[in-house]
Amino acid sequence: MKIKKLIDSFNYAIEGIIYTFKTEKNMKIHFAAAILVLILSLFYNFSKLEMIAIIVTISLVLMAEMINTAVETIVDLITDEYHVLAKIAKDIAAGAVLISALNAIFVAYLLFFNRLNPWTNILLTKLKNSPAHVTFITLIVVMIVTIILKAYFGKGTPLRGGLPSGHSAIAFCLATASTFISKNILLSTISFIMAFMVAQSRVEGNIHSTFQVIVGSIIGILITVLFFQIVK
Predict the structure, then answer these.
(1) Where are the transmembrane segments (predicted)?
(2) How far apart are CA 195 and CA 198, in angstroms?
(3) What is the per-residue pLDDT for 124?
(4) Contact yes or no for 161/209 (Cβ under 8 A)
(5) Which of 50-64, 118-132, 170-184, 195-209 comes out lowest in average pLDDT?
(6) In terms of Cα–Cα distance, which of 230, 9, 28, 55 is closest to 125?
(7) How many whole angstroms separate alpha carbon 37 and alpha carbon 141?
(8) Span 3-31, mean pLDDT?
């Protein structure tokens, strides 16, 4: 029972993200910017602290936009007439988004300016020595793409049902990444068998259709192959 409540909590939280993405144009822009920054980070040898700064900054912008949406929804629920206090509440929430966005621009300037300098493009070659970093970024992008597609098709819940199967996408993403990293046929075979078992369990449990699982698996594989080929 506790596990079901925990899963429901995750579902509600992700549904909140999906709702904000579907209804707010700015959230779509934030997601696009987040994916772009994560992809760019693949080409530069960021330290752990710099990666933490990037992840925290992205999270801060997304959280601010979601809080802004929540405030606007609550205000609209309470009153549909103009009121100075309602305006103040919405303005303050929008101001929080602006501050987080300006902070993101400042962080991006500090982290990327020198690295985008033509004289330092040699750093691009260093990424091939960081397979763990590539895998981490690929996994995040696969999760974001899955959420976007679930929001677009609007079926199922974030963690149960709908197109595509997120579990299958993540499982095959990790299996493909392990193949690139290990270059060991035995480990690769075991990884894909485990990914197949994850996908099969989603169908066996009547959580996803075979088509939804196949689409999720293809997404996980294609995105991972694309990222590892980019840095090859």
Answers:
(1) 29-46, 52-71, 92-112, 132-153, 174-199, 211-231
(2) 5
(3) 46
(4) no
(5) 118-132
(6) 230
(7) 11
(8) 83
Q: Are 186 and 230 in contact (CB under 8 A)?
A: no
Sign of CA dihedral 206, 12, 152, 230: negative
User: Would you name the residues annotated as active-site residues?
Assistant: 65
Token pair for residue 216? 């999720």
What separation, in Å, do the N-terminal and C-terminal C-alpha atoms of the chain show? Answer: 47
State how far the Cα of 12 lies from the Cα of 194, in Å rounded to an integer.
28
Contact (CB, 8 A) for 174 and 195: yes
- By C-alpha distance, which of 104, 6, 111 is closest to 61? 104
Question: Please, what CATH class does the domain formed by 1-124 belong to?
Answer: mainly alpha
Which tokens hold the place of 11?
Answer: 């579902």
Instruction: Tell me what pLDDT residue 127 has.
Output: 47
Tally Cβ neighbours within 10 Å of residue 76.
11
What is the rounded distance in angstroms from the CA atom of residue 31 to the CA atom of residue 22? 11
Mean pLDDT of 28-40: 87
Q: Cis bond leading into 118, ω under 30°?
A: no
Q: What is the pLDDT of residues 69-91, one digit of tens each?
A: 999 889 888 877 788 888 888 88
